[in-house]
Amino acid sequence: MTTTNRGPLIAFISVTTLFFAWGFITNLIDPLIPAVKEIFKLTYTEAFLTQLAFFIAYGVFSLPGGALVTRAGYARTILISLSAMVVACLVFPLATHLRTYELVLVALFILGGGITVLQVAANPLSAALGDPKTSHSRLVLSQAFNSLGTVLGPYLGSAVMLSGGMFAASAAGADVEVARTASLGKIDRSFVMVAGMIVLLMLFMWSQSRRITAAAPPIEKGSVLAALKARWAVFGGISIFVYVGAEVAIASLMINFLTQPDVLLSALKDPEGTSMLGGIAHFVGEPAERAGKMLGWLYWFGAMVGRFAGSLLLARIKAPKLLGVFAIVASLLCLLVSQSHGELAAYAALSIGLFNSIMFPTIFTITLERSTATVAGTSGLLCMSIVGGAFIPQIVARIADAGHMHASYFVPLVCYLLIAGFALAALRAPIVSHGAAPGAGH
Question: Is 279 part of a structural domain of the chain?
Answer without folding.
Answer: yes
